[in-house]
UniProtKB/TrEMBL annotation:
It is an enzyme of class 1 (oxidoreductase). It comes from Nicotiana benthamiana. The keyword Protein biosynthesis does not apply. GO terms for biological process: negative regulation of defense response to virus; response to hydrogen peroxide; response to virus. It holds the Pfam family Cu-oxidase. One of its GO terms (cellular component) is plasmodesma. Belongs to the multicopper oxidase family. This is L-ascorbate oxidase. NCBIfam families: ascorbase. Dimer. May be involved in a redox system involving ascorbic acid.
Length: 556
C-alpha cells in the first residue's frame, strides 16, 4: 500500500471589498480573491494548511479564524484580533500555517469587528487521510454553508449596536445557502405566504441557487455549517429523512430526523438516501428558529437526474417547527451522543466556572455581560501580552460565579455591571467544567438562545437543564457518551454544562457566536500554559505593547 505523505496546501488569498449580489440586491461584501463566499479549503487529516493572507482592504485591519481547528501548537494562527494576534494591516500579508488533525466539516470567518457579518467566510473541509476510513458509507457529497444577510452594511450595524439608545439590527433580510438567496421573490412563489413573485432566474446570477444534482437510490453526505450572524436555523429536505453522523468535526451515534436545528458556529454531516419518487425534484429549506422570524425561508433544489432542474417540486417546501417550539429544539440536542470509541471526559473536574449571561445597561448603553463583566478587547493581543509578561489587561480575573441570590427567571437591571478585559487563568492540564447559565434579558419574560463557541478545544457537552443550575444537577451529567463539540447552545432560561481539558497552550476566546452579541460584550477569555508557547511570529505581535517590545529589540 502506498504511503501518502502529509501535504502542505498553500493558498494565496486577497481579502477585499467587492460588489456582489448575494440575494438580488447589489451590496458591498467582503470577498476573497474576488469571490463570495471565499474559496473552499479541502485538505486531508495530517496536512498543513498555509494561507498567505493579504489585506487588500484600504482602511481596516483583518484576521481570519479557522473555526473548529484546535491550533494545537500554533495558538498565534487562531485568527482572533486582540486575542491571538494583531490585526493584519492594509497592504500586509500574514501567514496562517496550521495542521488539520481531525477529519470533519469546518469553516473559516473574519474575527475582527463584524467582518463575519460583512461576508468574510468560507468552508474548510478535512477529509480522512490515507489509511483512515469514515465510519459510514456514501456515494457522493455536497457542502452547504448557511448564513444570513442584511442590506445594511456591517459598519453601520456596528455603529447602531454601539449607540445609546441601542439601535438593534433586527432580523436578516435574506437567508443564504452557499452565499445565495432570493430577496423579494421566491423559488416557491405559488406556495409563499405573504405572496411573492417567482424569481426570474437564468441560472448565471450570483444569487441563483446552487442546485444539488443526485442519482436515484444512492446515499449522499450533506456537510452543513452555519456562519450566521444571528439566526438559528432549521434545515429540512422535503420528503427525505436525514441521518446525523457528524457534529463539529466529531462522529456521533447516527440518528434519524425529518428536520434539524443548526445554530451559528455549528457544523454537521447528515446522510440521506435518494429513495423518493425519481420523477420529481425536492426542496431543501432553511428557516429561522428561536427568534420571531421576519425572514423568508431560504431554498434550493434537490434535483433527481435526469429530471430537468427547472422542474419545480409539486409540493410546498417543508414547514419548519414553530420558532418558539423549544421542546423540539431540545429534543434534537438531546439526541446527540458521541459515537462509540470516542474520547471520554475525565470523571472529575478540577475547577468549575459558572458563567451567568445577562443583558445589561452600562451608562445607558445596552450590553451583554458575563458574571457582570462586558468584554471589551485590549489594544495589545493577550497571547503576546501574557507570553512576554507585559500583561496589558485588567489584572483581576473575572469571577467564577455569580451571587447566590440572583434570580435567573426575573427581569433585573444588573446596574452594577462593568466593562472589562480580565482573563480566566486556567492551570495547564486540568479539567474545567463550565456551566453556562442563561437568564431573563432586559425585557420582561424574555430569554434568548445563545450558541457558545470555544476556541482551541472541543468540549464535552455534559447536559442541558432548565432554570438555575444547582449542585444536584451534577448527578445527571452524561459522563458515558457526551458529544465532543466546539459550539453548544444555551436555551432560554436554561443552563448547559461543558467539560474540557486545558491541554493546548494559548489564549482562547469563548463567546456567544451571535456576532452582534459578541460585539456587545458577550464573551470571555481563557489562558492556559502560555509559558509553553513556542516562538510567536513577529507579525502577530507588531502592535500595542508587544509592538513596542519588538522595536526595543529586547526579545529578538
Ligand atoms: O441583543 C439584542 O438586543 C435586542 C433586544 O433585546 C433589544 O432591542 C435583541 O433581540 C437582542 O438579541
Amino acid at each position: 500500500r502506498s504511503v501518502m505523505a502529509a501535504k502542505t496546501r498553500h493558498f494565496k488569498w486577497n481579502v477585499e471589498y467587492i460588489h456582489w449580489s448575494p440575494d438580488g440586491e447589489e451590496s458591498v461584501v467582503m470577498g476573497i480573491n474576488g469571490q463570495f463566499p471565499g474559496p473552499t479549503i479541502r485538505a486531508n487529516t495530517g496536512d498543513t494548511v498555509a494561507v498567505h493572507l493579504t489585506n487588500k482592504l484600504h482602511t481596516e485591519g483583518v484576521v481570519i479564524h479557522w473555526h473548529g481547528i484546535r491550533q494545537i501548537g500554533t495558538p498565534w494562527a487562531d485568527g482572533t484580533a486582540a486575542i491571538s494576534q494583531c490585526a493584519i494591516n492594509p497592504g500586509e500579508t500574514f501567514l496562517y500555517r496550521f495542521k488539520v488533525d481531525k477529519a470533519g466539516t469546518y469553516f473559516y470567518h473574519g474575527h475582527y469587528g463584524m467582518q463575519r457579518s460583512a461576508g468574510l467566510y468560507g468552508s474548510l473541509i478535512v477529509e480522512v487521510g490515507e489509511g483512515e476510513k469514515e465510519p459510514f458509507h456514501y456515494d457522493g457529497e455536497f457542502n452547504l454553508l448557511l448564513s444570513d444577510w442584511w442590506h445594511k452594511g456591517s459598519h453601520e450595524q456596528e455603529v447602531d449596536l454601539s449607540s445609546n439608545p441601542l439601535r438593534w439590527i433586527g432580523e436578516p433580510q435574506t437567508l443564504l445557502i452557499n452565499g445565495r438567496g432570493q430577496y423579494n421573490c421566491s423559488l416557491a412563489a405559488q406556495f409563499s405566504k405573504p405572496p411573492l413573485s417567482l424569481c426570474k432566474l437564468r441560472g448565471g446570477e450570483q444569487y441563483a441557487p446552487e442546485i444539488l444534482r443526485v442519482r436515484p437510490n444512492k446515499i449522499y453526505r450533506l456537510r452543513v455549517a452555519s456562519t450566521t450572524a444571528l439566526a438559528s436555523l432549521s434545515l429540512a429536505i422535503g420528503g427525505h429523512k436525514m441521518v446525523v453522523v457528524e457534529a463539529d468535526g466529531n462522529y456521533v451515534q447516527p440518528f434519524s430526523v425529518q428536520d434539524m436545528d443548526i445554530y451559528s458556529g455549528e457544523s454537521y454531516s447528515v446522510l440521506f438516501k435518494t429513495d423518493q419518487d425519481p420523477t420529481k425534484n425536492y426542496w431543501i429549506s432553511i428557516n429561522v428558529r428561536g427568534r420571531e422570524p421576519k425572514t423568508p425561508q431560504g431554498l434550493t433544489l434537490l434535483n433527481y437526474l435526469p429530471n430537468s432542474a427547472s422542474k419545480f417540486p409539486t409540493s410546498p417546501p417543508p414547514i419548519a417547527p414553530l420558532w418558539n417550539d423549544y421542546n423540539h429544539s431540545k429534543s434534537f440536542s438531546n439526541k446527540i451522543f458521541a459515537l462509540m470509541g470516542s474520547p471520554k471526559p475525565p470523571p472529575q473536574n478540577h475547577r468549575r466556572i459558572i458563567l451567568l449571561n445577562t443583558q445589561n445597561k452600562i451608562d445607558g448603553y445596552t450590553k451583554w455581560a458575563i458574571n457582570n463583566v462586558s468584554l471589551v478587547l485590549p489594544t495589545t493581543p493577550y497571547l503576546g501580552s501574557i507570553r512576554y509578561g507585559i500583561n496589558a489587561f485588567d489584572a483581576k480575573p473575572p469571577p467564577d460565579n455569580f451571587p447566590k441570590d440572583y434570580d435567573v427567571l426575573k427581569q433585573a437591571p444588573n446596574s452594577n455591571s462593568t466593562y472589562g478585559n480580565g482573563v480566566y487563568l486556567l492551570k495547564f492540564n486540568t479539567t474545567i467544567d463550565i456551566i453556562l447559565q442563561n437568564a431573563n434579558a432586559l425585557a420582561k419574560d424574555v430569554s434568548e438562545i445563545h450558541p457558545w463557541h470555544l476556541h482551541g478545544h472541543d468540549f464535552w457537552v455534559l447536559g442541558y437543564g432548565e432554570g438555575k443550575f444547582s449542585e444536584k444537577d451534577v448527578k445527571n451529567f452524561n459522563l458515558k457518551n457526551p458529544p465532543l463539540r466546539n459550539t453548544a447552545v444555551i436555551f432560554p432560561f436554561g443552563w448547559t454544562a461543558l467539560r474540557f481539558v486545558t491541554d493546548n497552550p494559548g489564549v482562547w476566546a469563548f463567546h456567544c457566536h451571535i456576532e452582534p452579541h459578541l460585539h456587545m460584550g458577550m464573551g470571555v477569555v481563557f489562558a492556559e500554559g502560555v509559558h509553553l508557547v513556542k516562538k510567536i511570529p513577529k507579525e502577530a505581535l507588531a502592535c500595542g505593547l508587544t509592538g513596542k517590545m519588538l522595536m526595543s529589540n529586547k526579545h529578538n
